[in-house]
Design brief:
mainly alpha, about 375 residues
């Protein structure tokens, strides 16, 4: 007679079935591992931006100080061949300040010299646009423009206090900008004089195994940042010269100030130049008519193609190895996060981080 099997001696199918039911696929485990790491990185980045937001003026001043250093350092090194280092730095800084002030004086003189002509041409241009809108196919009534002018006058008179307060706050903004520029120039003087010594001192304070890593990361970051700064400066100068010559040939007023606007706007890749040239197109439309404005619009296309297919690949390819889509997304994300300053800072920041990551990865592979 056979005895029935002992339930305690055989494994229960319940736990095995449960383990099979909750078994996680390897792809999901890998995705979850990457997901929580990305969340951790996102939290750290968000916290860093929150801290920088509390001290954004200092952060902007340090960034501008690094930009000034990247521009002034080659001149200081050249002067240091036959001058003491302190005098070489002073000569480069004074020369840079005089160059900027000379450019601003040139712009101010151009605006003051053409103010009367610009006012006359602007008024006549507006009248010309109104007459075109009154003709077919638009057929707008002349009373529409009179009503628009009266409404604008009423709006300004009813919000006079707001306009005055905005103007006063603008004065405060100017003081803040001058303060940031002064702090940036102060930082640039010391960075240009002995920035490498400061970095070596910082690396010496780190633990032994981390010194080499930080040294490689710092050298790569500085080379990428200076390469980008020199490249974008060359692109901005080229764009400004081409725009200034084209506007002068077309007879558009304020060609020099608009060229300077193009120079400043070129520091925002892919977006800045079209915006600056759109302002030039509006000025051309109001002063020279639609034909000249269409020529300026064509200039926008030409400058965009030249910048995207010739200047950026030739000048910036060795310093910034980023796809144009990455550049565009970086600019938009920087603008959303921190306005104009974020749009300017985004591309060099992304390029520097990418270059540092590549250098550390290559170093790790070589060390392995």
């Amino acid at each position: 007679m056979s005895t029935p099997p002992d339930p305690a001696a055989s494994p229960s199918p319940g736990p095995r079935t449960h383990r099979a039911a909750v078994r996680v696929p390897g792809v999901l485990r890998t995705a979850a591992a990457y997901a929580w790491r990305l969340i951790a990185v996102g939290v750290v980045v968000r916290a860093a931006f929150a801290v920088l937001g509390q001290f954004h003026r200092i952060a902007v001043a340090v960034f501008l100080g690094l930009v000034f250093t990247a521009v002034l350092r080659p001149a200081a090194d050249l002067f240091a061949r036959f001058l003491p280092r302190a005098l070489a730095v002073a000569a480069s800084v004074v020369g840079g300040v005089l160059l900027v002030l000379g450019g601003l004086a040139l712009v101010g003189e151009a605006i003051a010299g053409q103010r009367t002509t610009l006012e006359r041409e602007f008024v006549s241009g507006v009248d010309r646009i109104e007459r075109r809108l009154e003709q077919p196919p638009f057929r707008l009534s002349p009373t529409v423009f009179d009503d628009l002018q009266s409404r604008v006058g009423e709006l300004l008179s009813s919000h006079r206090a707001t306009v005055v307060s905005t103007a006063l706050s603008g004065v405060g903004r100017v003081v803040e900008v001058l303060t940031v520029l002064a702090l940036a120039l102060f930082c640039a003087v010391f960075f240009t004089h002995s920035g490498d010594r400061y970095w070596r001192w910082f690396c010496e304070q780190l633990p032994g195994p981390a010194r080499r890593t930080w040294s490689v990361a710092g050298g790569t970051a500085w080379r990428t940042f200076t390469g980008y700064t020199h490249g974008i400066l060359l692109v901005a100068v080229t764009n400004a010269v081409l725009v200034g010559l084209a506007l002068f040939a077309l007879g558009v007023p304020l060609a020099v100030p608009l060229a300077v606007l193009e120079f400043v706007a070129a520091f925002v890749p892919l977006i800045g130049s079209p915006v600056a040239l759109a302002v030039a197109a509006v000025v051309a439309l109001a002063t020279k008519g639609p034909v000249t404005a269409l020529a300026v619009v064509a200039l926008i296309v030409v400058i965009g193609q030249l910048e995207g297919h010739l200047l950026h690949p030739l000048v910036l390819s060795w310093a910034v190895r980023l796809h144009p889509v990455v550049v565009a997304l970086s600019v938009v994300a920087g603008a959303v996060a921190a306005g104009v300053v974020g749009a300017v800072v985004a591309v060099p920041l992304v390029a520097t981080v990418w270059s540092v990551g590549q250098a550390l990865r290559d170093r790790g592979g070589a060390g392995a």
